[in-house]
Amino acid sequence: MNSNHNIPLAERLRPADLEDYIGQEHLVGPDGIIRRMIESGRVNSFILWGPPGVGKTTLARIVAARTEAPFYTLSAVTSGVKDVREVLERAAADARSIFVKGRPILFIDEIHRFNKSQQDSLLGAVEKGTVTLIGATTENPSFEVIRPLLSRAQVYTLRPLDIDGMERLLARALEKDQILAARNIEVKEKTALFRFAGGDARKLLNILDLIEQSAPEGADIVIDDRNVTQCLQENPAAYDRNGEMHYDIISAFIKSVRGSDPQGAVYWLARMVEGGEDPKFIARRLMILAAEDIGLANPNALLLANATFDALAKIGWPEGRIILSECAIYLAASPKSNSAYMAVNNAQQMVRSTGDLPVPLHLRNAPTGLMKELGYGKEYKYAHDYAGNYVKQQYLPDGLVGSQFWKPGANPQEAKMAERLCTLEQNSQE
User: Fold this and answer.
1) Average pLDDT for residues 25-42, to the nearest whole number?
2) Helix (H) or strand (E) run with residue 136 in it
3) Do residues 228 and 193 touch, judged by C-beta distance below 8 A?
4) Residue 269: is its pLDDT beyond 80?
5) Which of 204, 248, 355, 421 is the most exposed, fewest CB within 10 Å of its CB?
6) To the nearest whole percent, how much of the chain has pLDDT over 70?
7) Residue 190: is it exposed, middle or buried by C-beta count within 10 angstroms (0-12/13-18/19+)?
8) 336-350 core/surface letters (b: 16 or more CB in 10 A; e: else)
9) Nearest to 67 by CA among 17, 2, 126, 122
């Protein structure tokens, strides 16, 4: 057997340069910011945020190779503060060496798993330019990366491969990989292959690897929807713990809660729990659901979702699944309204179309005498000085007066809110 069989296809086919890198055209295409950094030779610290298998590690290695910079890598899963300091010391020695070209690059995989003290230990080296930090994360950096570190590193979002990207990756694997190229492989159908891959390049290559290894040596291989599905069902551990349906399952979970079906919500929750999904990922989705789909129809939903997130940190796993279940059922059974979601969308669309309209003078702050002379804050009416703590005055920029961004949803809670606002306006003094 070829010794390369011991190396996974995803590793055998890992691109060594941008010319072989597939996807992320917005970052590495002709006008992409990362390509421009590489070509200029001036690479600033950045964090790559995206789902698994979209090329975060590969891109970091390409940056280091193209800039000929020393490359250090740490996994946040296995590394502690001591490991970080040791690597930074070696990088500092490289930075001082006249024989080293380019600032050392420190790549940290799954940087979201570093705690605050571990992330704090990076700040000095990043700020002084001892190293260029490249972090990779599948989680929103706004939640998981400390603000001082975020202010020193730009965040770039990586996207799952689209159909065109998966087509190109499939063709490259069949043509460029020595093992696959030596087999007689006929691709008749790609629907199941691409569906199971879900935009994850590593997953697609793992499936190809599995199909090739499952076929008798020398036998012809046919790739069609039936064979792909059968092969994966017989080998359920063929790919990562998020499984082939990661995005489909979270979509089904969200739509079950939105559709007021607690049975479906609990079932899809159980699928994620059994699949080893990150509980914090589920809890964040519940918080978003509470605001986007329940909203003002039941404001307590967001309070419970936020409490769920906090309780998970205190309780841990596996008991945390009970907390997630309680929240999912409550949200599914709650009245629904997306009026807050639609309101901010409508307001953002207005901002994009009208630009930065000036703040009316009476709403402006006037901390200096000059500002007061210019009319800042003049004629502002302090609501608490009026009956019902309300007074009618202009709060929107000139030209937008009368615009309605929030439209109350058809539910008792928002009907009551709308009625109160209407009564205040009718009884208000000018």
Assistant:
1) 89
2) strand 132-137
3) yes
4) yes
5) 355
6) 93
7) middle
8) bbbbbebbeeeeeeb
9) 17
